[in-house]
Amino acid sequence: MAEIICALDFENLSEAENLVEKLKGELKFFKIGLQLFIRYGPEAVRMVRRHGAEVFLDLKIHDIPSICAKAVASAAETGSFSTTIHIAASPEALRAASAVRKSSGQPKIWGVTVLSSAGAGDSMQAASDALSCGLDGVVVSGADLKRVKESFPNLECVVPGIRPASYSLKDDQKRVLTPSEAVCCGADYLVIGRPIRNSENPLETVKEIKKDAGL
Ligand code: C5P
């Protein structure tokens, strides 16, 4: 069963906590990205965990292998459920990161495949690299999801750019899927930010998304 991850892309921790409080009865996963983490650090992760939810700490790590490994070790100390590394960092960096994840048991490591400006062929190569280097999954665009999941069924697919039919804006997302399309194409985790955050009633929006997607 796919899970929804609500992106907490806020300036302030109090705004983020406000949304977590509203949604925690319906959602188990929240994403903390660079905006909150650079400002508040591990306190942002603790805030979500205090509410009984899990954290996708979207660090988009990209560095030399030893530093990637240490960054994953630090992410593990925060108690985060998952984090991200750029697949372009190098196979050695991916293997070093996944070795830390395997020895500490957490966090799951999802590889960032390609920027939305690149082609689908690059996504397939990136997914293949992710699998061979021991990552848990990949962050993949809606356009490439079906092909990646069919070719690599054992890789978890984390999909941003989700837009419910009732939300007409694409914002800055180039390739969007509805929640039910994403589930049909094999998404394991749906990352949804603005359609929930900008809603007048985020809880109702989450309930509608879950119902539409059969979650
Ligand atoms: O739903 P919304 O467009 O607001 O979600 C944006 C979130 O998805 C951001 O937190 C962003 O980091 C994340 N994301 C993305 N595209 C990617 C990877 C992650 O938009 N390729």
Provide the residue-averaged pLDDT: 94
Strand content: 15-25%
The H-and-E topology, N to C, reads as EHEHHEHEHEHEHEHEHH
Number of E-type strands: 8
Bound molecules: cytidine-5'-monophosphate
Let me know the CATH homologous superfamily: Aldolase class I
* Principal-axis shape: globular
Query: How many distinct domains?
Result: 1
Poorly predicted residue ranges = none
What would CATH call the architecture? Alpha-Beta Barrel
Describe the structure.
- With 215 residues, the chain is an alpha/beta fold.
- The protein has one domain (3-213): TIM Barrel (Alpha-Beta Barrel).
- The protein contains ten helices and eight strands.
- The protein has helices at residues 13-23, 34-40, 42-50, 65-77, 91-104, 120-132, 142-151, 179-184, 194-197, 202-213; strands at residues 3-7, 29-32, 54-61, 82-86, 108-112, 137-139, 156-159, 189-192.
- Strands 1-2-3-4-5-6-7-8 form an eight-stranded parallel barrel, surrounded by six helices.
- α4 (65-77) links the parallel β3 and β4 (82-86).
- α4 runs parallel beside α5.
- The longest helix is centred in the middle third of the chain and has 14 residues, at 91-104.
- The N and C termini lie close together (7 Å).
- The mean pLDDT is 94.
